Amino acid sequence: MQNTEDEFYAWLRSVASNRTTLRLGIGDDAAVVDIAGTDCVVTSDLLAEGVHFEADTGDFMLVGRKALAVNLSDLAAMAATPVAVTVSLLLNKRQGMRAAKNLISGMSPLAAAHEVALAGGDTNSWDGATIVSVTALGRLEGEPLTRAGARPGDAILVTGTLGGSILGKHLQFDPRVREAIALRSDFEIHAAIDISDGLALDLSRMASASQVGVEIELAHIPISAAAYELASANSNGKSALERALSDGEDFELLLAVPPADAQRICEQGVLGIDVTNIGRFTVARELYRIDEQGKRRPLEVEGYTHGL
Amino acid sequence: MQNTEDEFYAWLRSVASNRTTLRLGIGDDAAVVDIAGTDCVVTSDLLAEGVHFEADTGDFMLVGRKALAVNLSDLAAMAATPVAVTVSLLLNKRQGMRAAKNLISGMSPLAAAHEVALAGGDTNSWDGATIVSVTALGRLEGEPLTRAGARPGDAILVTGTLGGSILGKHLQFDPRVREAIALRSDFEIHAAIDISDGLALDLSRMASASQVGVEIELAHIPISAAAYELASANSNGKSALERALSDGEDFELLLAVPPADAQRICEQGVLGIDVTNIGRFTVARELYRIDEQGKRRPLEVEGYTHGL
C-alpha cells in the first residue's frame, strides 16, 4: 500500500459486489462492464477548484479541457476508443452560467477531435468551489489492455517526455488515445497505464498488478524540457531526472512490450510521438534503478498522491 | 423555458456535437449511447453537502444510498436495467475515510438489490464540503422509453403517492426500476419520466417534449400521508394537494399510456404498487387542472429547480 487512497481502494474492492457483468473492476485505469453482451469501458475523474485548479488564476476553458482529457487518458490506457462522456457540474453562484459555458466550451474541440459525444450530466450551483465531474465511456476492439499483463523480460516503454508538467502540459496535454490504439493494433502489448501520478509510482502500480519487478535505466528516461527548466531554476531543489521520475500529470503511456516489438516501436515511434525503452520487467518483485555508472539501487517510489 | 437550468441545457444541446453514436442525447432522464452496436443507457447525478444534504445532520450511509437511488430512478424512467455505477467522491479531510466507507456502505444494499456493480470512480479530499458524483449505466430490452412519446388521448398515470417527500421518502425511496420494466414488458407505454422536481414541473416537461397538452383531475391525484401531515402542521401554508403537485423528490414514475392499457394497469397496480390515472394528454399544447367542481383552470408549474 503506497498511500491511503490505495488502502481505500483495497477496501472498496473487498466490498464491491463481484457481478458477472463487471468484466474488469476497481484497480485499473478504467473498468470494463458487460452491457447486454458488449464490453463498455468506463472511467470517472473529478476536478475541484482549490485541489486540481485555482479559480482566480484558472481559465475555465482549460479546466474543462483537462477534465475531459484526464478521462480520455484513462481510456487510452485500456486501448479503448472514446465514445461519449457525461459531465456533472457544481457551479459557484457568482460564476454561474459563464463558468458552465466556459467549462463545456473548453471540452468541445478535444471532444470533436476524438469524436466524443456529450451525452448529458447534471448541473447544480452553490456558494462553494467549482467542481467538474466527468465520466467517459469507450468501446474495445478485442480484449482490454490492463496494467496487469507485464511479463518478466518485457521492455518498459514510455511515450513522449516526462517531468515538469506543471509548467503547462498538465492543462494542455494530448491524451494518447490514437497512439494506444495504433500500438495495440500493430504490436504485441502486454500491459499499459497512463502516467498520472509520476513515472515511479505508476510503474510500481503496473509491477504490482503484474506481479513482476522492474529495472529502469536512469540514463534512458526521456526528460522533458520543462523538467530541465524547473531544475535549472532550482525550484524545490529537484533535479530534472527526479522530476521525470516523480512529477505527476504527464499523461504519457507506460507500456510493457516484448523486446522484439519494443525495438520496432522505439525505432519508428507512434503517430509522430517518440517512444523510449527505459528498462525491463523482472521476475524478482523488486524495483531498481540503474544509474549511468551501472550501479543498481532500489527505486524510491514517490509521486503525486491524492491522499485521503 | 421554466428556469435558468433549462436555458443552460438548451444551450448545451445546441453545442453538444450530434454524433451518430449518441442515440438519445441531452434532454431526457438519461442518454442512450451506441457502444459497438449496443445501446448503453447512461445518467449522472451529483449530490453536494449544503445543497442536497447537510453534514451535521446527515447520515452518510443514507446520502450514499440516495446518490445511487436518484441515478437508478433516471434509468427506471427509460425502462433500462441497471448494470453498473461509477462513484467519484470529494471528501472533507476531517471526515475522510470514515465518510467514504459510510457513503459506499450505504449504497451496497440497494446496489445488491438491483444487481448493480460498483465499477470504480475517483477519490479526492479537501477542506470543503463532501461531494458524491454517481454515473449509472444500464441496458435496454428494445427501444428506450423517453419523455417525448406521449400522445393526445393517452392517460396520465403515476405510481405510488406524491408530496411531502422531505419527511423521509427523499432519502429512502425505492427507485421504480422493476416497476418500469414490468410495465414496459406487459403494456403499451408511450412515455415516462421520474418525478424528481414535482409533479407539475415534470409533467410540463413531458408535455413539452411530446408536443402535447395536459388536463389533470385534482381529485384523482394520489396525495401521500406525508403531504397531509405537513399540511396539517401548516408548514409554509401549502395544502396537501399543492404539495403533491409541487414537492420535489418523489421519484415516482409518471407515464403516458393508451386508455385501455391504463385501465388494466390501474386495476392491478404493478408489483404491489398502486398506479393512479390522474388525467389525460391533449392536442392543445396547454396545461390545465380540473378541480372537484369540474372547473378548468391553467395549471401553475412550480417545483424544485436547481437554479444556476
In short:
2 copies of one chain form a homodimer. By secondary structure, chain A is α+β, with helices and mostly antiparallel strands.
Low-confidence stretches of chain A: none
What is the element string of chain A, with H for helices and E for strands? HEEEHEHEEEHHEHEHHEHEEE
Rg of chain A (C-alpha, Å)? 19 Å
Largest sheet of chain A: 7 strands, mixed
Q: Name the strands of the widest sheet of chain A in spatial order.
A: 8-10-7-11-9-12-13
The global form of chain A is globular
**How many beta-strand elements of chain A?**
13
From the structure provided, what is the oligomeric state, counting identical versus distinct chains? homodimer
Query: Quick one: which chains have the greatest interface?
Result: A-B, 80 and 80 residues
Total count of helical runs of at least 4 residues of chain A: 9
The helix-and-strand class of chain A reads: alpha+beta
Span between N and C termini of chain A?
Answer: 13 Å
Share of residues in helices of chain A: 25-40%
Estimate the strand proportion of chain A.
25-35%
Summarize the structure in words.
Two copies of one chain form a homodimer. Chain A has 308 residues and is α+β, with helices and mostly antiparallel strands. Chain A is built from nine helices and 13 strands. Chain A has helices at residues 4-15, 60-77, 96-113, 169-172, 177-186, 199-210, 225-232, 240-246, 259-268, and strands spanning 22-24, 31-35, 38-48, 81-92, 117-126, 131-139, 155-159, 191-194, 213-217, 253-257, 275-282, 287-290, 296-298. In chain A, the strands form two sheets. The first copy, chain A, has a seven-stranded mixed sheet, with helices on both faces. In chain A, strands 1-2-3-6-4-5 form a six-stranded mixed sheet. The first copy, chain A, is globular and about 60 Å long.
